[in-house]
Amino acid sequence: MMGFSTALILVVATVNLAINKLSNNFEKYLETPKKSKYKPYIRSIYNWNLQFNAILLTTYHRFINPRPDGLLGEYGGEVDHLIVYPIKSATTGFKMTQWEMTQYGLKYDRIYMFAVYSEKNQRYEGFNMSKAAKLITLKIKSFNGTHFEFEYISKETGSAKTFQLPCEIDFDFIAKHSSFGSVSKPINLWSSNFEGYILDNFLSDDFKSVFELPEDTVLIVSADGKPCSLGVPKKLTGRRTMFQDYYPLLTVSQESYNAVHKDVGTEGNYVRMESFRPNLVLKNVARPFDEEFYLKFDIVGTNTKKTGSYRYHFSTSMKCARCTIPNINPKTGVPDDKSTVSKKMAKYRRTDDGSPYSSIFGVYTVNHDVGITIKQGDKVDILCRASKHLLPKDNPFR
């Protein structure tokens, strides 16, 4: 007579094979904006099956048949490039083939932010390019390791004008440009409240005029950022981010961008990868938007100075619901009054019933390791997949 454990194994294996065979059908059902009382249960079953597959695959590669490339799970592409935006919601970023990770995300990412004071809420509130589209045309002229130099065309002189911002907190710089000295003030960004230093004497009238900013716009820098806990692994307690919307990184793939760029046609040809504000850009993923299913992955590379390899851990938190910024032409800073990119994406990128009216592009990501360097060509090792769902209680942008 068949033992209980043998029967259980056969049942689990049968269910696993059936779900694997119907995987595409499950995805098509789950990745839609339509709500259903059955979806949470089906998503749980589907994700359980994905985790079961991951355990089998990593166990096989770890103990039975190691892969020559050292991957434990599923090949998920490789690092194409990284992008840092020293000022939140300004410039097209600083593109690199390798960069260091800190506890806040990519080093020097979004360490400054433009803001205005809210009398109603009694705090400084950040704003993005949806309110000041021309900020995308601010150029990063250079980076010397300690300062970023920015450039724009002055209205006063008609010629290029530059300014520098230090990469690290500089209290002499703060004292020079803040009427509050080294006293920090309350700041709000989405649902996060924290403290920062107000550089209210830094921005010139010419700068505000060029970028069509409110007269009371100030530049803000934060010493220690804001808490980042929703959707973050419990073992990473105490994580913080600077002026990123919330999470340290936004991960996208070249394949996803290519699909959108092709779909928007000549009308939306202005859109660029930087329009979506990613930090970690992958390439050679299995299909467009596949990265949005990565739940846990490692970035694996080989040391050049000595033999051996490195493996760094990452988790994803939630899919990124897109704002209107991709409709801005990065060269001119002029919004597309037809909202071509948003309208095209709305036809097929509404894939989360937790945010049914938003188009999805990219996935928010948390780095587990700090003081590490990510390089172009590093491989992505998918350790576990999941179909994600945005729940109101887990939404830091509410």
Keywords for this entry:
globular, 7 helices, 398 residues, five-stranded mixed β-barrel, alpha+beta
Quick take:
The termini are far apart.
Tell me about this structure.
- The structure is a single chain.
- Helices cover 21% and strands 31% of the residues.
- The chain has 398 residues and is an alpha+beta fold.
- The chain has a domain at 111-227.
- The strands form 5 sheets. It has a 7-stranded mixed β-barrel. A 5-stranded mixed β-barrel has the order 5-6-10-11-12.
- The longest helix is centred in the first third of the chain and has 26 residues, at 39-64.
- It is globular and about 80 Å long.
Helix content: 10-25%
Q: What is the number of E strands?
A: 21
- What gyration radius follows from the Cα positions, in whole Å? 23 Å
> Between the first and last Cα atoms, what is the distance in angstroms?
57 Å
Largest sheet: 7 strands, mixed, barrel
The helix tally amounts to 7
Shape: globular
Q: Any low-confidence stretches, pLDDT <50, length ≥5? A: none
Tell me the layout of helices and strands.
Elements (H helix, E strand, L loop, with lengths): L3 H18 L1 H8 L8 H26 L9 E11 L9 E3 L1 E5 L2 E2 L5 E7 L4 E4 L12 E5 L3 E7 L6 E7 L4 H7 L7 E5 L2 E8 L5 H6 L7 E4 L4 E2 L12 E2 L7 E5 H11 L15 E4 L10 E9 L6 E13 L18 H7 L13 E8 L4 E4 L3 E7 L13
Parallel strand pairs: 6-10, 15-16
Antiparallel strand pairs: 1-2, 1-16, 1-21, 3-4, 3-20, 5-6, 5-12, 7-8, 8-9, 10-11, 11-12, 13-14, 15-19, 17-18, 17-21, 18-19
Helix pairs in contact: 2-3
